[in-house]
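Sample A.
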Amino acid sequence: LRVAPVCVRIASHTRRLASAVPAFRASLTAVNVRRPLPGTRLFSGIDGVSVLDVDAGLDKLARQIAEPVEWAACLAACVEAGATAFLELGPGRALAEMAGAAYPALPARSVADFRSVNGIAGWLARVAAG
């Protein structure tokens, strides 16, 4: 076992943010949430389970700031649901790299890999075309 300090500004996805969960959940009530388009799947980051109910989904989203993200479970759920590629929207490319390592047969990229929206659109079109 090795322990080392990690330089982070916020202890995201840890118990240290547990006291913020109720306030964050309350703030989510002000958000106008629309159901996803038909055929779109939404998975919870804390367990990889499909989100079918808006209130339950918002509860899980709020809890996610103080609980570990089960990225492997999310990836597995996406693949089981028929995902054929992964595009990471957040900063960096750590999640795209994890997806590529876990499912090397599926293309995985990050928006950070591209210089323009046109580049992203072109890649998505090529992936969709097979």
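Sample B.
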Amino acid sequence: MQMGASAAAQDATPPPNATPAVQPLDQRFMESLTRGHYLEAMDMVEQADPSEVNDLVQSTYGQFRPVLDGFVVNGAAPDPSVTPDDAELAAYDGAEAQDAIAAIVSRARLTRIVIVNEAHDNPRDRAFILKVAEALRPLGFTHYAAETFTNFSPDAAAEEMGWLESQGYPRWTSGTFTVDPMFAYLVRRVLALGYHPVAYETAFSPEFLAASTEDRIALREQAQAENLVRALAEAGPDAKFLIHVGYAHAGERPLPPTEQGWMAARLAGLTRIDPLTVDQTTFAETASNQKVRALQRVLASRLAAGPAIFFKDGKPVSSGQLGQAVDLQVVHSLVTAVDGRPDWLRETGRRSIAIPPELLPIEGRRLVQVFAAGEAPDAIPLDQALVTAGEELPVLYVPDNVGLRWAVQD
């Protein structure tokens, strides 16, 4: 379900007399992140006693470690001896890779709701959703709803969304995953394009967290859908929504393990609007299933340029359980490093700049950050990268015509 980080961030705050020393590691980690102490948070996990690093901590760390430079946390190394599942591979025989954005745009003309998912541990997915947002705006899409936006209460959400619209950039309190500079840049761009931000996540109350896994899924999916129904009604009949979700929330049909409806299915049922649903999380270099990774390598080798959707006899081809529950499935190229950063950063509409020499570490490692000059102290960096003395120097990516302010964390 991939709920750990969101739950940790939106859960009730600890009692006033609680101290960091007695809080669980996952809570201390998130509190450091939400204060902007990126390197402190990562060191906290990397240097922790192994007994504290449980599955929740490992998952949360894996989701947020990429905020330091854009690179995903490497799981098991790919096994070149593993081949794709024969039936899955055969489905792509004779299929043509078509530009993903063009395919989405052509179908988005027929609906008021487009839902695109992300893997919370892969900032590249956010860069792709930025391209979707840019392409949908000329079609009259008006609202950008993100699962990650803070939604402790209707009043708190309204205040934070109002702040975003008035200021044009996210801050530490804006959302869970918006601490990622790539996510923050996505938010900056959609605001600049004229989208209205919408928070729709459910509040993770103590009662919610005490429920069974199956009940939590049902409660969360229904609450998200109902929140979006209200937002659609308030926006009016001409409004069109781009909804940015995580993982299976984009599913229009039941999925294991619970075989119950996820948010997209519930939203469609409540609104009688057939959304365009897009999955880009099935094929990932970090997938635990080696056969899925093998299939991704084969499909990626067939891409001409950029993300693609495969079509056969005029119909989209997809793979995996989630692929069968959405309208379209995106295949990305394999990520490579360019100038010490993921190659996809070059396609985000920004320019690369070198780190000033005086900010480079003499020894050890240092997080170098660049901010927009004049923004509030709690603004999210425009970009940042981890620099290790004696290793390749990474570049940073910034928009044109923006004054810059530099900072470091040791």
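B remarks: Residues 11-20 have pLDDT under 50 and may be disordered. The two ends are 34 Å apart (CA to CA).
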